[in-house]
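During the reporting period the student researcher (J.K.) took over the structure-prediction task from the postdoctoral fellow and processed the backlog of single-chain submissions. One of the processed entries is reproduced below for the supervisory committee.
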Amino acid sequence: MPHKLTAAELAQYRTDGFVLKHNVFNAQQLRALRVAADRAVATAQQAAARPDASTYFLDGNRFVDVGRVTIQFEHQPGSSLVRVMEPVRLLEAEFEQLIDDPRLVQPMQQIIGADDLALWTDKLNIKAAHEGSGFGWHQDSPYWIHASNNVDNLPNVMVYFDVADRSNGCLNVIAKSHLAGCLPGSDDQRQLAGFYTHADSVDTSRAVALEAAAGAAIFFNPHLIHGSQPNASSRPRRAIILTYQSAGRPALKTQVERPVRSLSAPSAVHSI
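J.K. obtained the following structure tokens:
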């Protein structure tokens, strides 16, 4: 079954820097992804307690590196709530398989302009009910520009595992902001200030809140300014972001190529 973007969807991606596709995954598939997310969180919490785990703080936020995986915890001091895991495929086999899903791969082939793809990175974002933190306006390209000579062509796809709306912190984007390329970062005193887009470059009149039901997929450009608000609801907001690239290039964290494979091929479960 073809899963390609329509001509109109591809044109929107080029023009606006993003396209939202509804109902990409069904209820049964979403149940499996939510269970996998819970398993990944449990594995991450156990891994963070290992004696070989390396803990550090940036702008007061706790990060733990275990092997090739980085685990970020919620911003509250002493919080044990996991906020981000990257690369999450090393924690959970279900996400290893998701990388090869044609519903994601076929649109990425169109966007990148190549049949043979590889993974750049993958992360699971967890916003717990009432406590999930937001993320300020930023582009992904400044994070990657020193690690890749292909940063213009590292598109993302974000899959909502839960209903995402303004109350639980859906993805917000600045339409057409990708057309300006990699923009200057903030110049305040935060350690990570340079990774947040300078306020002078953020035209909030073009902000779009990408509210959607669970199972939606958002394809967006690495230069697109985006962010999200905290989760003020009683519902979680879980989502995975996969970033693809043309084949023959290593993945960000492992520095080993992870080729995109046919779904008929067995998935590999990696050790962290």
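The committee noted the following: The first helix runs from residue 7 to 16.
J.K. will present the remaining backlog at the next meeting.
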